[in-house]
Amino acid sequence: MYGNLRPVKVYDALIDSSPLRPEIVSGSNILIVRELVGGIYFGERCESETVDGVERAWDTEIYSVSEIQRIARLGFESAQKRRKKLTSVDKANVLASSRLWRRVVNEMAKDYPDVELNCMYVDNCAAQLAINPKQFDVIVTSNMFGDILSDEFAAIGGSLGLLPSASIGELTSFFESISGSAPDIAGKGIANPIGCILSAAMLLRFSLKEENAAQAIEAAVDKTLADGYRTAEIYRDGLKKVGTVEMTQAIVDRI
To answer: What's the whole-model pTM score?
Structure first.
């Protein structure tokens, strides 16, 4: 499962939960396409080695042309279904792997003339997500950069628990909230179920091609938030504070 799709939408009902000013963040809707099975997380590493009394460790970033082409293709095709704007994020001014990444993505852009391609360094992208997130449509990037940037924008949107994800593979796909399983709070009724519920919508859309069903779930989430239902981490005075089961039921009732 080589490609991780992380859609990040800032809900109108949750504008006050964002650390950014409403006029900056309102209307932001970004899909981050993260390479998932390569890069520094999977390269050669050494936990600890002592040479001449100096301890050191290392991790190696490796990408092949075919790996870059595969994830870039997913990025271009995703952009074609949205606003037709793709931002490729790398660190080509420093990293050899990023220079290869940028060259391959630029070569592939010729096959997608309807998509506007913009290449951006990761440090600038991190800043731009906070300064002007509405400029982005689809972001395609490496494993580590995608991990970091998607969590940054999750915070901008209000909560990690709101975000779904799809890990797209050649033989199968996997869908889960980007927050993971959170076993430390299991059974306490305080987990936000929205990310998991929206992951089910992504499963319906990408694996089963049931677009109407996916839209029904997404519309129900929108309506539940607009009606004031909030789990603990996004609760504000004057709204309806509910637990995991109550939030789930409120969404089910609106499908």
So the answer is: 0.91
Cβ distance 7 to 177 under 8 Å? no
CA dihedral 35, 41, 44, 50 (to 10 degrees): 160
Tokens representing residue 11 in the block: 């809900």
Nearest to 4 by CA among 116, 167, 207: 167
* Percent of the residues in the chain that have a pLDDT greater than 70, as a whole number: 100
Q: How far is the CA of 191 from the CAs of 14, 30, 65, 104, 243, in angstroms?
A: 17, 24, 40, 41, 7
What is the per-residue pLDDT for 123? 97
- Residues 145 and 119: their CA atoms lie apart, in Å, by 14
Catalytic residues: 41, 91, 123, 147, 151
Strand, helix or coil at 176? strand
For 118-162, write each residue's pLDDT tens digit.
Answer: 999 999 999 999 999 999 999 999 999 999 999 888 888 777 788
| Spatial separation of the C-alpha atoms in residues 121 and 149, rounded to whole Å | 12
